[in-house]
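Assemble and predict.
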Amino acid sequence: MSHNCDSCVALAELERMGVKLDKFDRVVALAGNPNTGKSTLFNALTGLKQHTGNWPGKTVTRAEGGFEFGKVRYKLVDLPGTYSLLSASSDEEVARDFLLFGRPDATVVVVDATALERNLNLVIQVLEITDRVVVAVNLMDEAARKGIDVDVRSLSRDLGVPAVGIVARTGDGLHALLESVDGVSSGAIVTKPLHVTGTPEFQRAVAELVPLIEQAAPGVPNARWIAIRLLDGDAQVEEALATGRLAQLVAEQQGATERFSQKMALQGAQ
Amino acid sequence: MATTAAAAEAIRRAAGLRDTLNVSFRDEAVRSIYSEATRIAGRAAHQSHERRFDFDQRIDRLVTSPVFGLPIMGLMLAAVFWLTIAGANVPSAMLANAFFWFEDQAATAFEAVGFPWWVTGFVWHGVFRGLAWVVSVMLPPMAIFFPLFTMLEDLGYLPRVAFNLDFLFRGAGAHGKQALTMAMGFGCNAAGVIATRVIDSPRERLVAILTNNFVPCNGRFPTLIMLATIFVGAAFPASFASLAAAGAVMGIVLIGVVFTLAVSWALSRTMLRGEASAFTLELPPYRRPGVLRILYTSLIDRTLFVLWRAMLTAAPAGAVIWILANITVGGTSLAQHIASGLNPLGYAMGLDGVILLAYIIAIPANEIVVPTMLMVYMKTGMMSDMDSFDDIKTLLVDRNGWTLLTAVNLMLFSLLHNPCATTILTIYRETLSKKWTAIGALMPLAIGFIVTILVATIWRLVAA
């Protein structure tokens, strides 16, 4: 692989902006299983030095940073690692709430090339929430060392969203990743995300609930996902809907939380 | 309101629809997610050649083995302490020399220019001396300890620690991931408290938050290291001194872990009753640590960050001490008055009034306990400069009556007392409960009082 040249192209066009977040054009979220290298990718893109470590669950708050690519300014939000979006622990809630209500222009799901199957469970769940997804297959070098070949084109075809192989630690593949992020977030790349459909009765039930939810919480994104959670009997979502907290969550996640996040990132760095 | 009515209707309708669906509809959906993931992964990933030799697994079998796991962990921790103590000695003394030489020069220059004595005293013997102590006592050990610790973290060793300690935490009714948050506490207890977010169950998370303070943070390590070096290390031949000192620090850390487990056990049976919940923990592959990045994060982010915080609190503390030591009422300074007021309690704890005064002034940050203490002693002892740990020992033992009991109990009290202000604030932000914050702050302090008074009483009985 001509990784040196690849990364120098990325370097030439990538402007790392650290925490200078006053003006940005698009918001990109970083999601993924724990310990797949989200923070490493975050640092590589923003030039920040968010603390990284080799253990699952290191990032418990969301950190924000900025970068510019192709004359577009991006705000990048590093979310805590999660195995699924269905659990109730507070770090997973941070990730889930942002994906649901923060309305990122694109979500990069970082997956571990050496443990693809387990990582894809989360990707499929994220696709239930948002269409604008790019899958970053990280740790391609580790996979190669273990004798695992990952065919990203096959992944991309099956998932219906772009998939790019990267090595976040060396910067390998970042240029291709950013091009996909640009395409998906601008709408130039139209994705056809895979939806795992349930039984016909289930589909009917969801369709019946969606309009009611949209009426209850005007402007709520992903009413479909909330309908599924309601059918599931998720007490937290029920409560959020009944108390109007859902509407409040939408407002909160879209509001300017930069100062808050910066402070949290600092604490995480200790 | 129309929206609340719609919300109630949606919830009611959902409950009704749930009954019409097959009970296992969501299980089916989850299962189809899994089978879809398996199918896609199977098509995209291929094992091209057999792995020759699984190095990771071999190492894991050793470091997580029931027999060798814990001893290896202990050895690694002891090695880290030993490297820190042996390596920090000389640079600490050099820094102290340089700073105090500068203090003298600057004070002389101030006098020559004609500043009043109290300006010179306040600026150079108060504020500057506070800063100088913090930097020379803290910088070298931190500059060694943090990179070593970050290296272990980067390598992927922490999850193995959690794996090894799981049976202990489960036995105490706590969550196995508490081992991870405890390890974070070695860096900073406030960071450790935030790290408890990885624990799902609120009960176990509270246990982890309330007990995080029982591992000494980097702000307290310099105190422990200094005392271990002066009092424990010095009792051994020079060639064993740093080894013995490392052993003493290690002993204090182990006592901290024992208290973590014991208090977790007690909480799980009283205020926070419940069983330990099951969890899965991935053992990530070992990764070669990026040396340059480690140096950057541990030196810039951690060391300088902590040092900066220490200096911010040390400067006003130095000023407060100078004022207390130089305002006299009835012939004795305020510092003396307060210290003698605290003396009876200090004596019962095997300490003295000055040490307790230092702890009160140092509530904002534990880092400044020793410098504060020394400054109060110096003011009363009229000692102007100290070049090495030997001079500190002379000051403490010969002029202020310290014994081995004082050193041991100060090490214990440094481990077992209230968290610093930042940590207390973090506990409040994470729990949003005044009650748990108060317990988190006062419980360790109460335990500290009890333990030191017990040790002092028994010590004096045995010695008498």
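The radius of gyration of chain A is 18 Å.
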